[in-house]
Amino acid sequence: MRILNRYFTRQLVAIFVLLLLVLTGLAWMLQIMSMMKFLLNYGVDLSSFIGMTMLMIPFIVSIIVPFVTFIAIIFIYNKLISDNEITVMTASGLAPKQLARPALVMALVLTILHFILNVWIVPQSQYMFYATQWNLRYGLAHLKLQESAFTQLADGLVVYVDKVSGHDLSQVMLSDMRDKASPMTIFAEKGKLVPTERGLSIVMKNGSLQSKNKTLTTGTFDNFDMDLNVGDKEGENSFRVRRVPTSTLLKSVLDSPSEKQHKMVLAELSSRILGPIMNLVLAALCVTILLRSSLLRRRASFAPAMAVAAMALIMSLFMSSSNMISSVTEFLLLMLAIIVTLGGILFILFKK
Questions:
Q1: Has this prediction a pTM greater than 0.90?
Q2: Separation CA 91–CA 95 (nearest Å)
Q3: Model confidence over 43-80: pLDDT tens digits?
Q4: Average pLDDT for residues 316-329, to the nearest whole number?
Q5: What is the enclosing helix (H) or strand (E) of 182?
Q6: 146: DSSP letter
Q7: 159 neighbors 174 (Cβ within 8 angstroms)
Q8: Are 96 and 349 in contact (CB under 8 A)?
Q9: At a CB cut-off of 8 Å and minimum separation 6, what does 249 contact?
Q10: What percent of the chain is predicted at pLDDT more than 70?
């Protein structure tokens, strides 16, 4: 039996790794294509851009792992059934539960790894992704001022710098036309670029200011702090549950400030905590349908289609249910439903 377990496991692991690499690579390439604006609009260098998109890989993997597990199992077991290897093993006295053991063990290991990925790795990588994205869009990383030239930083915001030394500037002229009702022109002997929570600011020294509202206002200053390009405050400060640590999400279940945020937290917790269990559910579902159908030769040819349909039904129910959860009680009921479903599938598989 150990030889057969190794035989099954070797094939399952090989096809799983291959599918995971291919599908992750395809999803990553789509992510790169969707974020090409960072290369085109913000002057981001290629290495920083690739590094940012790679931070999405853990999240991509967390989404596709249950599907890859199901595809790997249905491919290998259906191949063995088509080659009559399962029939020979069954005739030699092996029960369906023994034949299903390699797939279930692999699914159990993947469930544990998926849980670790969801609870710790994905939130951290998503936090780093959004922080890197914001910095590349609004921070010092993307800003490149040219000496003795006018640089347009945003619509209506133009700056002229005589000399640039790192973040230190000299002989600065800044024209701010973003507010059409109150245009402003500033001259300063020195300036310094400073990253802030709002985005990028410039601190200027020893200069003069001219502003026109209803009347023309002029004046001088020793120090003047001004935003260059106000960041996407809503996008940066909004509650993105994917990047929030799991421990923080668990605490916020009881003190969410709004009903919408409460639902978002519960949906994310369902995805992180209950999602990995779907590896076991789909694996058990697949081997149960394939192995039990192989004993009924007339129905064996329909088994893969039945398994795919059942997988689609269960995953659609899980995803829709997790997104509609509005209370802790409903969360616990969904967990109970998943456990009962898994228990029922295993009961059908293990019965003689």
A1: no
A2: 9
A3: 677 788 888 899 999 999 999 999 999 999 999 999 98
A4: 92
A5: none
A6: P
A7: yes
A8: yes
A9: 241, 265, 268, 269, 272
A10: 87
- Sign of the torsion angle spanned by Cα atoms 84, 87, 91, 94: positive
Cβ atoms of 104 and 280 closer than 8 Å: yes
Mean pLDDT of 76-87: 88
Check if the beta carbon of residue 205 is closer than 8 Å to that of residue 189.
Answer: yes
pLDDT value for 142: 52
Rg (CA), the chain: 29
Walk across the sheet containing 157-165 and list its strands: 149-154, 157-165, 168-176, 184-196, 199-212, 216-230
HSE-CB for 148 with a 13 A CA cutoff: 0
Residue 333's pLDDT band (cuts 50, 70, 90): very high
Give the SS3 label for residue 148.
coil
At residue 211, the 3 state secondary structure works out as: strand
What are the C-alpha distances in Å from 171 to residues 106, 147, 206, 227?
Answer: 66, 10, 10, 18
Q: How far apart are CA 121 and CA 123, in angstroms?
A: 6
Q: Which residues of 175-196 are buried (b: 16+ CB within 10 A; e: fewer)?
A: bbeeeeeeebbbbbeebebebe
What tokens appear for 188 in the block? 């300063």
142 and 42 Cβ atoms separated by less than 8 Å = yes
The pLDDT assigned to 64 comes to 96
What tokens were used for 330? 């409903």
Beta bridge partners of 208: 187, 220
Kindly report which listed range (18-27, 78-87, 138-147, 334-343) carries the lowest average pLDDT score.
138-147
CA 104 to CA 268: how far, in whole Å? 26
**Strand 199-212 relative to strand 216-230: parallel, antiparallel, unpaired?**
antiparallel
**What are the angstrom distances between the C-alpha of 291 and each of 101, 249, 300, 350?**
12, 41, 9, 11
Helix (H, G, I), strand (E, B) or coil at 188: strand
